[in-house]
Amino acid sequence: MTAQCLADVFLGAVAAAPDRTCLHRQIGEHATQTTYLELARRVAGVIGALDRAGIGEGRRVVCFLDDVPDAILFALACAHNGVTAVPLDPRASTGALHRIVERTDAAAVFTRLEHADQLGALAVPALVWTPMPVPAGITNLRGEPPEVGDALAVLEARKAPAGSLYVIQPTSGTTGEPKLMLRTQRPFLRIGKLWSFPQANALAHQRRLMVHPLTHGTGVLDLWSGIAATAELCLPSRPNVEAPLDEVRALDPDVMTMVPRILRSLHRQQLATNEPPGTRLFGPSARVLTFGGAPCEPELQAMVIAQGVEVVEVYGTSETGVLVMTPPDERRPGWAGKPFDDVELKLDTDGELLARTPCMMEGYLGDAQQTGDSLDPDGFYRTGDYGELDAGWVKILGRKKDVFNTATGNNIFPARMEGMLEQLAGVQQAVLIGDARPFVTALLVLDHRDQLGAIVEQIRALNARLEDEERIRRLAVLDTALESDLYRSVGHGKVRRERKLIEERFAELVVALYAAPPPSGVVVV
User: How many other C-beta atoms lie within 10 A of the C-beta of residue 144?
Assistant: First the structure.
């Protein structure tokens, strides 16, 4: 039977493979595994606990955590009971949390005990799911889960429809307050049908790596595409760039989806071990690596391909879902791929890529003006990316709002070069300066300052591959990592660099970078 809603997808996986591992978590050398059937019991238990707390269909709960297993449990419960999740990175400030609670009219905040001291004086209940004792004022959703028959009866009886509001996704905004994007279940139903890989479909069952937290849309897409494939979801102890390479290797996934900055982090960890050249980055079973959200260096792709892993690029936005994917055995370097059959694409007069799909967002919460401005008169979403279309292929040129116009009139898309810099061993964060400037400079955050000499040599080698106007002439090293208001992850795994704020915050340093004519090589300020 074709799944009519996300609850059908989950129940279908439970019925097809009740004893198969659904969640495989690796914490150092210790592994825990949860079957689809056991997970179904836990989900039913959470639904019952939410019912007892008076939080049911149509209510909204802010999920203030990036712990993937807890977030998965709550996301599955929402698919059944019709509660809308509002994911928020726990690195956000207490003030930002309170504003999101107020703006979404949330009934509660779901979090972890470790974040309890960040909650402040909440006007709504705080919920956790933990085997530990909880302090007064916090509700624990964990209890003895119902027996199998009772649990399945609850899940069968509670199926939120595909058109129900499933996620309110905070996204980056230019005013300091995030836009609140409304997403039904439909985009996540769609991804389960599209996100298949011929290279892995022949396996008896797939192991899919999940390194994206569900605070961003990519993580939710990972979840539902994996469940639709009845896959084993492989979870390292920490998500995102903090995922430990040894745990990823121990999980030995077949299919891996990650934004380039996570791939760079894993590669940096490998370089730090001084392994022999040619050592596989991933475990022996790795078959498919899918990336998107930002450019990925050709050298890094070539390294993975040489290890027998198929590299697949995707492109999309949170507002539209995934639009483009590399067809099997049809890689075209520099091009993102071809659109799915249900995707319409066109270029605006200035070259901006516009897209329309049947599963687009419902709009931005409480902001009809911004919703209308995001669409053209025909209902195509303005992606904010410059693009190129050629015989069905799509190339992404760069962000419309993130392009340098140098003093000589050349357009430079900095994200590509920043990705190259952050791939270098020892570089945590990179921000380029250069808009309306005579040459390009960089601000870097390093793992260790004593690596600077080696990094300068690598940048000199990188410059040799760049056009003259792109070359980095001066750089400065910051003492600490950039704060989240300056540098943060946003939807679909992208990184947002607030360049104007960064230039204001480090104004004296920027002046020093441009205090003299451009040098012939790389100069450290």
Answer: 7
| Residue 110 near residue 128, CB atoms below 8 Å | yes
CA dist 409 and 41 (Å) reads: 61
pLDDT per residue as tens digits for the range 97-134: 999 999 999 999 999 999 998 999 999 999 999 999 99
11-44: b (≥16 Cβ within 10 Å) or e:
bbbbeebbebbbbbbbeeeeeeebbbbbbbbbbb
Question: What value, to the nearest 5°, has the Cα angle with vertex 500 and ends 172 and 435?
Answer: 115
Q: How large is the average pLDDT for residues 302-320?
A: 92
* CB-CB contact of 46 with 119 (8 Å): no
* Contact (CB, 8 A) for 381 and 375: yes
* Residue 337 clears pLDDT 70, i.e. is over it: yes
Residue (of 495, 349, 500) closest to 436 by Cα position: 500
Tens-place pLDDT, residues 209-261? 999 999 888 899 999 999 999 999 999 999 988 999 999 999 999 999 998 88
Per-position DSSP letters for 188-252, written without gaps between them: HHHHHHH---HHHHTSSS-EEEE-S-TTSHHHHHHHHHHHHTT-EEEEESS-GGG--HHHHHHH-
pTM of the model: 0.81
* Alpha-helical runs (H) found in 62-185: 68-81, 94-104, 148-157
Q: Report whether pLDDT(460) > 70.
A: yes
Structural contact between residues 476 and 443, judged by C-beta atoms closer than 8 angstroms: yes
What was the pLDDT predicted at 409?
55
**Contact predicate 65/110, CB 8 Å:** yes
Rounded distance between C-alpha atoms, residue 311 and residue 297, angstroms: 12
3-state SS assignment for residue 426: coil
State phi, psi for 223 to the nearest 5 degrees.
-60, -55
Q: How many CB atoms within 10 Å of residue 369?
A: 8
Q: How far apart, in Å, are the Cα atoms of 151 and each of 110, 131, 146, 154, 367?
A: 22, 20, 5, 5, 39
